[in-house]
Structure formats: structure tokens, C-alpha cells
Amino acid sequence: MSKKIVVITGSPRRGGNSFAMTDAFIEAAEAKGHKVTRFDAAMMNIGGCHACETCYKTGKACSFDDDFNMIAPVILEADVVVFTMPVYWYSIPSQIKGVIDRIYSLVVGGKDIAGKECVLIACCEEEDKTVLDGVRIPIERTAALNKWKMAGEVLIPGVLNIGDINRTDGCAQAAALAEKI
Ligand SMILES: Cc1cc2nc3c(=O)[nH]c(=O)nc-3n(C[C@H](O)[C@H](O)[C@H](O)COP(=O)(O)O)c2cc1C
């Protein structure tokens, strides 16, 4: 069955490690006939949540009308939500955190977002795989709260510079994950 997949990236580094895995995932997903829409959050103008609780009151998801309002309707329509990012300071990079925080607008706005699938693709420099907990745990808990099922994760430690991902099986794992969506 063809699914609508929204991919949201968090790295500011074009051609970097998480982008390489993202590209592999998207190529495999499209080859399977899925419809993929990609947003590179770091190249967009997206701030944090103002907690004003006026979500959808102005006709758009967020009253603070930046590029998040382009992403919100695509998340609403999506069957699968894919987050890809590096670890920054043991946590989620600010470039994508604004998108995640503002999913709050869909919840406060009373939108039915339950039943989606969620995917996480992430990487970090350190060899210690628990470093990836800083992105894995918040995404898994966000998915659980939203009643999204984790469809899979690709978590690759030990990659620092652009191209390091090619010394790992990260891109192959990302493609294999897309195959089973
Ligand atoms: C601001 C910043 C913070 C980082 N913090 C961490 C960290 O806490 N732990 C870690 O293992 N790697 C850290 N890294 C390294 C990146 O996670 C690593 O280089 C990753 O491969 C980058 O992915 P990208 O090429 O997709 O941007 C950091 C990199 C930057 C630029």
C-alpha cells in the first residue's frame, strides 16, 4: 500500500551523515511507491513554541506564521512521520526541535493525529551508542503520547565528518527500514 511519508531533517550540513541516510531512506521509500515530502528544517525559518495556546485560532496551525505552517498540514495528512538528525550536545538539535515542539499545535488544536507510524534516523560522533538516547528517548515518548507506533530506528554512533557514514551500514539500514514501511 502506498503511504504518505513526511521526512523532517535536522542537520544544517548538506551532504552530511544524517542527510546521506535520509537520502537512502527516501530513495528506497519512493522505489516502493510511497509518496515522500521532505522538509529540511535547518534551511527553513522555524522558531520555538510560544505556548500562547491560540493554535488554529487564526486559521493556521500556529499564530506565529513561519515555515512550520508549511509542515503542519503535511504532518496531518501523513501516514508516517520520519525524523532524521545528528545528536547535538546529547540532545535534539535546535534546528528540528522547533518543529517537534510545535506539533503541540496539532494537539491543542484538537487534530486527530493518532495512528501514524514514526521513524527515527540519527547519528553521533561518539562510539557510545547510549549517546543516541538523547534523541531516541524524546522521540519515542513523543510518539507514544501522540499514539504513533515506532516503525523503526536507525541509530549510528561513531560518525563525525561528512562521509564517515560510508564506513558504516547506516545507509543500508535506512534503506532496509524504508523497505519494511
Ligand atoms: C553543535 C554540535 C554538537 C554536537 N554534539 C555531539 C554530542 O553531544 N555527542 C556526539 O557524539 N556528537 C556530537 N556532535 C557530532 C555530530 O553528532 C556528528 O558530527 C554527526 O555525524 C553529524 O551529523 P550530520 O553530518 O548529519 O550533521 C555534535 C556536533 C555539533 C556540530
Please tally the β strands and state the result: 5
Q: Judging from the principal axes of the Cα atoms, what is the shape? A: globular
Order of helices and strands: EHEHEHHEHEH
Mean pLDDT: 98
What is the CA-CA span between the terminal residues? 9 Å
Put simply, the count of helices is: 6
Helical fraction: 25-40%
How are strands sequenced across the largest beta sheet? 2-1-3-4-5
Low-confidence stretches: none
Tell me the major beta sheet: 5 strands, parallel
Oligomer: single chain
Bound molecules: flavin mononucleotide
C-alpha Rg (nearest Å): 16 Å
Note the beta-strand portion: 15-25%
Helix/strand structural class: alpha/beta
Give the SSE layout.
Blueprint lengths: L3 E6 L7 H15 L3 E6 L27 H10 L2 E7 L7 H9 L1 H5 L8 E7 L9 H13 L3 E8 L13 H10 L2
Parallel strand pairs: 1-2, 1-3, 3-4, 4-5
The site of flavin mononucleotide has 19 residues, from helix 1.
Structural notes for this entry:
The chain is α/β, with parallel strands linked by helices. The chain has 6 helices and 5 strands; from the N terminus they run βαβαβααβαβα. A 5-stranded parallel β-sheet has the order 2-1-3-4-5, with helices on both faces. Strand 4, helix 5 and strand 5 form a beta-alpha-beta unit. The N and C termini lie close together (9 Å). The model has no long low-confidence stretch (mean pLDDT 98). Bound molecules: flavin mononucleotide. The site of flavin mononucleotide has 19 residues, from helix 1.
